[in-house]
Amino acid sequence: MAWTWFHRLGSPPYIYSLAGRLTPWFAWPAALLIVAGLYDGLVLAPPDYQQGDGFRILYVHVPTAYMSIMIYTTMAISAAVGLIWRIKVAHAVAASCAPIGASITFCALVTGSLWGAPMWGTYWEWDPRVTSELILLFLYFGYMGLRSAMEDMQRADRASALLAVVGIVNVPIIHYSVVWWNSLHQGPSLMRLDRPAIQVSMLVPLLMMILGFTLFFVAVLLVRLRGEVLSRERAASWIREAVTP
Amino acid sequence: MAAALAEARRTRTPATPLLTAAGLALTRDLRLAFRKRGQLIQPLVFFAIVTTLFPLAISPELSRLRDVAPGVLWVAALLSSQLALEFLFRDDASDGTLEQYALSGQSLSCLLFAKTAAHWLLTGLPLAIMAPLAGLSLGAPAAAVPGIVAAVAVGSVALSLIGATGAALTLGVKRSGALLSLLTLPLAMPVLIFGARATELAIKGEGYGPPLELLGALAVLGLTLAPLATAAGVRVNLE
Fold first, then answer.
1. Set of chain A residues whose Cβ sits within 8 Å of the Cβ of B185
2. Overall number of domains in chain A
3. Is the N or the C terminus of chain B less surrounded, counting Cβ atoms within 10 Å?
4. Would residue A27 count as lying in a domain?
5. What residue in B sits closest to A158 (Cα-Cα)?
């Protein structure tokens, strides 16, 4: 009774139409928030007294960096749900997360590198956060590689789900060992300078961008999920009704 | 197969005690490996060759080599531990041994842990004995030998366990070598960090206790969790 709505989420036809109906509700607010956040951040917010206009890449870098971890967590949780309760749709969600997460992680690395060029004087610094972000990108690649190497869909689902769970256990270990490695090898670097607390006029566009990027992720996830469900259920009879207008 | 597996897990009560069964699995693997001695030393020869490449590529001066020695040792150890992984479960999966293990009613994770232990005895332990020789040739002082042996011995436990998890996950993939490295190397990075750090401190003649203890912590965590993940991975690929 009270759980029927939950059980319906496991049904591919239901999730296909639900994802289709929900997409605009995430996509439009995401577009509005990102456009407004960009205008606010790039035009209205005052330049930083130390970094000038260079800091403005923060409005893309911080949301992507936060989302690279958030998407991996989403992926691992839905993989675990799929593994434990054997829900096909949960595996489809995990599979749809991976390419988005890898692209976002790549964006975080690129924007960080572009930010580093004027601020640290180098495009690449073996800073702990940069390094663990890079390892996270490798973890995404491993997940996607394992999926694509297996022909049988169910086997690919379960093996890659296990890998995602093993990965999420390791993410904090990798992060802290990298932090420790770095703190042993070099003293406080340039970026450890105490930065002034962020001003409200800079913070508001940042929060808008973070929220906008999160909604953007959900929208893209829903679109990818529809594609994933379609390709998985291509033999099912409900597909014909769903795709004919 | 899936139904048979579930049935076996539920009903069969094995006649052999678990420790005996695990011991038999371990000795079986060791015996099989010693019948092919040529293959047994290949990772060691690989390790020796890789450590030889670095003086040729960097410089023959011992003072410069001493600085990079920990990194060279650990990268070489990491790579040579990858070599045998692809075949850790491959032969047993193709001839049905793993299915028999899964159907035996014994705990699959314990039997696979015995296989992993055999793998460590055949690759990790010899590496720990080889590593100080390579270290000495790269300019490490003789006093560093115990530290290097301890670091490689403990670190390779963690490497074998991570590798076994990766090997189980890629069991269903035909040529899994590159994919296996892609899966396991990121997970092995903490081992590399602490192992190289312990080795570096040992070469400098300083106390290498803390990084060695962290390596031990990683090994214990691996001992606790990796056999479960390995068994789950093998089950996925058997069903």
1. 138
2. 1
3. N
4. no
5. B236
